[in-house]
Amino acid sequence: MRLTSYERDVQREIESWQHGDSSIIAQALNWAMQPMDWVVRQIVSPALIDQADDAITKFLSFLNDASKWTYDVRDLIPRAKSMGLEADSTDDLLDAPLEKLDDLARSCFNENAILAAIEGGGTGLGGAALIAADIPLLFGINLRLIQQIGASYGFPMDGPDYGPVVLSIFNVAASGSREAKNEALREISVAAAALAGDVNYRGRVSGTFRDQNRHLPREIAKNIVGRKIAQTIPIAGAVIGAGINYWFTTETAETAYMLFRAMYIERKERL
């Protein structure tokens, strides 16, 4: 199907994001965390780093094992209707105007970023003792956010079949690298082709979920652990926890926003 002028503009925006550097927020956090990284290296034990790494890896492995994820996409429909979209299910959003769907997706950003910041600030007060609790809560909030944004474009993302897409989003959010963005867009292309052809999506790489994604949980953990460990610094832990959780959630939102827009456009082009 032919794209509208708005959709062509979005394509160019996605291309700029794909080839661009990490966001201003990510760059600012990298700069601010440099002295914290030094402190962490001096005071944090290898055992605590392993504990945080293990918590992240276990949560990401859960994506394969859970039969149903946390968010009921039907909860998004009243919000869609309040924004002028005629929809009784997420399927009705598949062919709605992209500009309206963008507004719906963006409406999910702030509430989740603020929730993650509050959660990170609260667990940051507990230092090392609460890091193991903080990590699954943070990733749970972000999984819900990904499902909300996907559902905004008619893609419910409601189970482990879409684990490769979710892991790709987390990988880009954690690293911000161009390589991760390119890999994620390739995964999105396969998913869009499956949706356009009304066939089951099985992931870009053949084999089981773990075969396809065995490297990603460790890669994501590597990019998050050092920053989460900084929450153990006395007094500063609450501020650091809130800031890191806000950063990661805004990066997840921006990544999901770009990738699901790309999926919407590619699916439309293939119809």
Structure description:
With 271 residues, the chain is mainly alpha-helical. It has one domain. Helices cover 71% and strands 0% of the residues. The chain contains twelve helices and no strands. It has helices at residues 5-19, 24-43, 46-65, 77-82, 98-106, 109-124, 131-152, 163-175, 178-196, 209-213, 216-229, 237-270. The longest helix has 34 residues, at 237-270. The termini are close together. The model has no long low-confidence stretch (mean pLDDT 83).
List the helices and strands and how they pair.
Blueprint (H helix, E strand, L loop, with lengths): L4 H15 L4 H20 L2 H20 L11 H6 L15 H9 L2 H16 L6 H22 L10 H13 L2 H19 L12 H5 L2 H14 L7 H34 L1
Helix pairs in contact: 1-12, 3-7, 3-11, 5-7, 5-12, 6-7, 6-12, 7-12, 8-9, 8-11, 8-12, 9-12
Concise structural overview:
The chain is 71% helix and 0% strand.
